[in-house]
Each structure stands twice: as structure tokens, then as C-alpha cells.
Design goal:
Layout: E1 6-9, H1 16-28, E2 33-37, H2 48-54, E3 63-66, H3 73-83, E4 88-90, E5 98-101, E6 104-108, E7 121-124, H4 127-141, E8 150-153, H5 157-160, E9 167-170
Parallel strand pairs: 1-2, 2-3, 3-4, 6-9, 7-8
Antiparallel strand pairs: 5-6
């Protein structure tokens, strides 16, 4: 297999100065793809993802975006409506959850098992796991789950990982596997 070079950006938190510098750097680099791996936005600013992605709009390299623990559902989805770019892909969509690139399979597992107030993407291990967390967090913080939430189940990776030796799993907060062939965290 050919060498695969990825530019990974995570926890940018809406820093536009850094976004501009990274866009300039990656426009001149020989990376095969750019990956925004969660926490792209500035908390409380629904427009910040769009403002960050705007710097990458002119780069003609595949750019894949997956949410982490801070993106609101509406801010994330509205950014893609505004950006309208064939190179920038929303990896919460089924059609973009597995990408083939240079003989590798990039598999995106959106969301995070850690959730910040008003974040719209939750990675869960099981319904009972989710209900226990919700009860614990509600007791501690009140109702921290306002707004729309899109859930992604850890078992979903089973349908996307067809060749483990060629698969790169991309997740903001990677699941902890307790044993080989375990799909629980």
C-alpha cells in the first residue's frame, strides 16, 4: 500500500487565527486529506464552524469533518449548508462514514462519550450505559441535554470495518476496548 499522509486538526475551538495558519500550511503540504476531528467550534458560537471551514474552502484536498463533544447539532449542520464545497465532507452522514483513500479505509465514529452542555452528538455504548450516564449527569447538573442530539452507537463500526489491517478509526474520544474483538467502552 502507498503511504497515507493525513493532516489532523482537533480541538481548534473556533480559533480563527490558527485555522487560517493551518489552511495556509495544508494548502502547501502534500497531505492526502485533512481531518477535523472534533471540537472545531467555539462554545456558544453557532457560526464558528462555518468561519473555520471557510479558510479551507479553497484548498482542493479532501477534508473530512466529524463532531466531538462541543459541537451543537444546529451549528454543525448549518455550517455544511453554508459552505457548499465538494471537498469538505460531513462524516456524520452514512455515505461519508467510511472513505477509501490510497488503499486504506478511514472509518469515522462521530460524537463523543463525553458531553458538554448543548453538544449535539453523543457516542454511546449501550442503552443502559446511556441511561445511567444521563441519570448521573442530570442529578449533578440538572438537564444538560437541551437541543437536538444525534446518537452514534459504538457497534456501528462493525459494519464499516471490513478489513482491520487497512482500517484507520477516527474518533474524537476513541473508545476503550477491553479485549480483542470487544466493542464496548
Amino acid at each position: 500500500m502507498e503511504e497515507l499522509k493525513l493532516g489532523i486538526i482537533t480541538c481548534l475551538h473556533g480559533n480563527l487565527k490558527a485555522a487560517k495558519a493551518l489552511a495556509k500550511f495544508y494548502s502547501k503540504s502534500d497531505v492526502d486529506a485533512i481531518i477535523f476531528n472534533g471540537d472545531t467550534n467555539k462554545d456558544g458560537d453557532e457560526n464558528s464552524i462555518y468561519m473555520v471551514l471557510k479558510h479551507f474552502k479553497k484548498i482542493k484536498k479532501p477534508t473530512y469533518i466529524t463532531p466531538g463533544s462541543h459541537e451543537t447539532y444546529s451549528g454543525y449542520k448549518n455550517s455544511f449548508k453554508k459552505i457548499k464545497n465538494n471537498y469538505i465532507k460531513d462524516c456524520t452522514l452514512s455515505k461519508n462514514r467510511k472513505i477509501k483513500l490510497k488503499g486504506y479505509h478511514l472509518v469515522f465514529l462521530p460524537g463523543s462519550d463525553v458531553k458538554v452542555y448543548d453538544a449535539g452528538f453523543q457516542l454511546i455504548g449501550s442503552k443502559s450505559h446511556w441511561l445511567k450516564r444521563l441519570k448521573r449527569l442530570t442529578k449533578k447538573y440538572g438537564n444538560p441535554y437541551e437541543g437536538i442530539i444525534d446518537f452514534f452507537h459504538i457497534d456501528e463500526i462493525k459494519k464499516y470495518v471490513t478489513d482491520p489491517n487497512k482500517t484507520v478509526l477516527i474518533c474524537h474520544v476513541p473508545p476503550r476496548f477491553f479485549k480483542k474483538n470487544s466493542w464496548f467502552f
